[in-house]
Amino acid sequence: MTASFDFDFFVIGAGSGGVRAARIAAGHGAKVGIAEEHRVGGTCVIRGCVPKKLLVIGAHFAEDLVDAARFGWRIEGRHFDWPTLRNNVLADVSRLERAYQATLDSHAVETFHARAELAGPNRVRVGEREVTARHVLVATGARPQVPADVPGAELGITSNEVFHLEALPERIAIVGGGYIANEFAGIFHELGSRVTQLVRGNRLLRGWEPALADRLLQISLGKHIDIRLDCQPTRVERLAGGQLRVALSAGEPLEVDALLWAIGRIPNADGLGLEALGVTRRNRGEIAVDDGSTTNLPWLHAVGDVTDRMQLTPIAIREGHALADRLFGGRHWTVDYANVPSAVFSHPPLASVGMTEPEARERLGGVRIFTADFRPMKNVLAGRDERALYKLVVDAATDRIVGAHLIGPEAPEILQALAIAVKAGLTKAELDSTVALHPTMAEELVLMR
Q1: pTM for this structure?
Q2: Are residues 79 and 137 both part of a single domain?
Q3: Are residues 434 and 368 in the same domain?
Q4: Which pLDDT does position 164 carry in this prediction?
Q5: Residues annotated as catalytic (active site), given as ranges
Q6: In terms of domains, do 91 and 23 share one?
Q7: Three-state DSSP class for residue 94
Q8: What is the dihedral of CA 65, 189, 377, 204, to 10 degrees?
Q9: Local confidence band at 1 (pLDDT 50, 70, 90 cut-offs)
Q10: CA-CA-CA-CA torsion for 419, 423, 429, 434, nearest 10 degrees?
């Protein structure tokens, strides 16, 4: 298959999308190479969703250990040690990195641990070497955004560095209102830091179901997370003692021990040689591709966050899989971006699939809304006032469930099954006909009337 090329398929970026594309292509018999300048595994495995979820799990013990007393458990001498959690998380990340590399090796994918750039049509410069490939895939992901218009912004950290903190900050400011900001606000609060969350807009989680975002705000404020809406940093300075002084657009300056930028992610498409080849890019610098993940050059492709279609790891994996199947397996299919479930691993977590209520009213007109607002059994016995909220959005004309939105303990785990119902186009009547599994939180989904 290689003919006059060194490789049939060369992948730039060994994250989730790139590794999946490489493995599938190799399984179809293609000669595959892959280059990674950092660590195999990419953002999700190395410095994203996997280590962050481990921190979320670790942080949950703070509440669980307090609640344990109401369930008869006496736990003396509770103490949290940040280096222990940090080091164990980083060790597990290294384990996963080895597993990803083993997957590539077992499929005879040649790995280049070096930066790769496009050197010309069907040509890639990787380290000091230049190789040719029939098809090239760019799967370089995205990077955390740091504001260019805030003096001293470089004194803050991003989600890339947060997993390597030497010590847990006593006071931390987290800038942003999206999922990363809310997740780290919950983590640091539960681990004992005093958290101030600075949000440029007037609400959390823009684009999410408003009822869930409002409930998270209410719960977070009740936990004494200092959330300041319509407020953002205007200047950051290092004080003599090492602390940071953050000037704000509203209110008095803030003094903290750490500042975390969580204001979005930018596609990693710069410095790859795209301009010289005339590759089309869009407004945030993302690589423009068609439904099959091919650019305006027929030999060049892109998947994952660098295309900015939907920044989710499972989407990048599917995009890479579909591309490899089409190029080397004779199987033509495309990723369906409708009704993709997503979650925010905050405290408590949110999970959502399908249309929000405002979206459904705009697109469908007539909708019916069903909600369950309740205290989970564990919270009742623990003496916590924190309430869960489940919400279903139903098309009034067809009775189809077009949206499902949950906030509460284990919401993402529960929603995964409900996402199947939304994707399959099941009706509210079919949900109602399902016998409740009692006593569970999930039974509320089939008891709404």
Answers
A1: 0.95
A2: yes
A3: yes
A4: 96
A5: 438
A6: yes
A7: helix
A8: -170
A9: low
A10: -50
